[in-house]
Amino acid sequence: MSESLTDFLEAAAVEFRVFRRLFGEAGEIAWDRTLDWLVDEYFRLDVLGLENVPARGPAVLVANHSGAWGLDAFVLMKVLTRSLRRPLHIPAAPLTFRVPVLGSYARKKGAFPIDPTLGLEHLNAGELVGVFPEGIAGLEKPLHERYRLRPFSPGFAVTSVRSGAPVVPVAIVGAEEAYPKLGEIPALARLFDLPYFPLTPAFPLPAKWLITIGEPIEPPARPSSLAERSAAARSLCAEAQAAVQGMLDHEVGRRETPFW
């Protein structure tokens, strides 16, 4: 390979990396502005109970996961970070970071790859961690089962007991109607290497969103034995799930239509 061709290819590679970086940054700015518009104008989102999130110190925010594409995670991160002026760190599946623009945006805003401790390092640093203990099962719910929680994984409760951080229950209403799951397309799930590919509107429907934040649940003092710690975590997990389900039932029951 001639020296001139080598120089050309190296210069082209540099230009491509610069273009990709600039394109990514522009995409992240556009997505951030789109989220602002969705939250404020399109979903007309209201937040109740912000005072229940500690102004300082660690806390584990535990929310229901809903809507076929998991937009609720981006909305929750946007709203709470903007309102509390504190970053919300959310453990996200590897798939999140594979998506162009959205993956880099999520990482910059505080998302981190799921690990067994579910953000213990952030909690020990006095920060906020947000979790969706239903996992992908929460997004796979069909429309007729919306707002019926799937079993919570107790990992967040183990981390809460270990760190001493309170658990703050969060109920998100509106995402189920914005991105209703009407079915699945297995062929596309295999094609894109996804856990599932939902049949849902390409653009979210204009549902009215409401985020309700409940009173903190203090974890018990960390027991000395493994068996006692496991029992304490299971109890805390059940209490948190009951709190979130209770808030969902209340808020869904009092609305006249999802599009009010």
**Cα-to-Cα separation, first versus last residue:** 67 Å
Relative helix content: 40-55%
Strand content: 5-15%
The helix count comes to 10
Detail the poorly predicted runs. Answer: 5-20
Q: How is the largest sheet built, in terms of strand order?
A: 1-10-7-2-6-3
Walk me through the structure.
- The chain is an alpha/beta fold and about 260 residues long.
- It is built from ten helices and ten strands.
- A six-stranded mixed beta sheet has the order 1-10-7-2-6-3, with helices on both faces. It has a two-stranded parallel ribbon with strand order 4-5. A two-stranded antiparallel sheet has the order 8-9.
- Helix 1 packs across helix 2 and helix 7 packs across helix 10.
- It is globular and about 50 Å long.
- The chain starts with a helix and ends in a 6-residue tail after the last helix.
Secondary structure topology:
Elements: H1 3-42, E1 46-48, E2 59-63, H2 71-84, E3 88-89, E4 91-92, H3 94-98, H4 102-108, E5 112-113, H5 120-124, E6 128-131, H6 136-139, H7 155-163, E7 167-173, H8 175-178, E8 183-184, H9 186-191, E9 198-199, E10 210-213, H10 226-254
Parallel strand pairs: 1-10, 2-6, 2-7, 3-6, 4-5
Antiparallel strand pairs: 7-10, 8-9
Helix pairs in contact: 1-2, 7-10
